[in-house]
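Lab notebook, bench 4. The sequencing result for the construct came back, and we need a structural model before the next group meeting so we can plan mutations. Quick request posted to the team channel:

Model the 3D structure of this chain.
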Amino acid sequence: MKVETPKKTKNSPESSLSRIGVDLSKSTFHVVGLDADGKKILRRKFNREGFKAWLARPDLPRVIVAMEACGGAQWWGTHCQSLGHTPMLIPPHHVKPFATSQKNDINDAEAIGEASLRPKTTSVPVKTPEQQDLSMLIAARQGMIKERTALAARIRAFLLERGVTLPQGISHLGERLSTILDDGTNTLTLVTRTLIRKLQNSLRCLSATIGEIETMMDTLAKTDETSRRLQTIPGIGPMVSASLVAVIGNPKRFRNGRDMAAFLGLVPSQHTSGDKIRLGRITKHGDTGLRSLLVEGAQSAIRAAEMTGSGKMKDGKLRAWILELKKRKDTQNKAAVALANKMVRMAWAIWTKGTTYTATA
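Done. Here's the predicted structure in token form:
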């Protein structure tokens, strides 16, 4: 159905618009307009080109354009900025409590508009093209790692059905699989060998592509000044620094490093009532891939702090803190998560102040 762009009439409420809530889709866009008092004064339905033309109208007031942080929202945020509007990308879980009626597009747009009025509603920053490139590489790498893990598990399962076992780990699979397939004394049939060789080729292609993506991320991290400064922190390498820049965007939207660590899910969950304070496992909010990279980086920093020969961490307050942390925590993982939290707080301080990390005694 063709959706016509509405023409402005003499008594049009568009002149009183302060913000709009938009329910995004590929082709149809529902808009709810609010005035300065938060009163709903406009309801519209557009097609894609009609919505773009309506936003670009010179007689339309410059407004806050609230939308869910979903697929395509980053492009619309950039487009709204180019037209002088102020985009507000709201995480979907902040919109859901305001959807008080039945599920449809216009009600979703109203819920987005209501959520944008609340002062405690957080928004996702509009990323630069460079940050979007990094986000794309991170998402592609995470997806391919999952595909590679699933493919490796499938190969192991096929071999196990024929009485051939392999230890866990991609490296073991790469080292031993060719030897097993070339061994004519085992119970593998010709069909099994042919299929697993094809799966092996797919596994190699995935590993090669993952390596190329990591090389691209390393290159981008080396050319970015912020990434280079973040890499001075022990445990933060090119992969972690590039991911931080892509996911966080602007660190000044957080009041302090603790808030940034909480945004990434590296703080204990709370189940507190009255005077009883109960702390549980970490919340695991935020980006899963970045949090995993931070914990892996923290584990490498702990190993460096425990070393005594070449490659050990420089002596200083951080190394002493890590060694003391290891004594207090009963598992390596707890120590790694605690250090990851500290790394994020240090990254916030270095990022916002424009400094670098220096080991101090």
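The chain has a mean pLDDT of 90.
Will bring this to the meeting.
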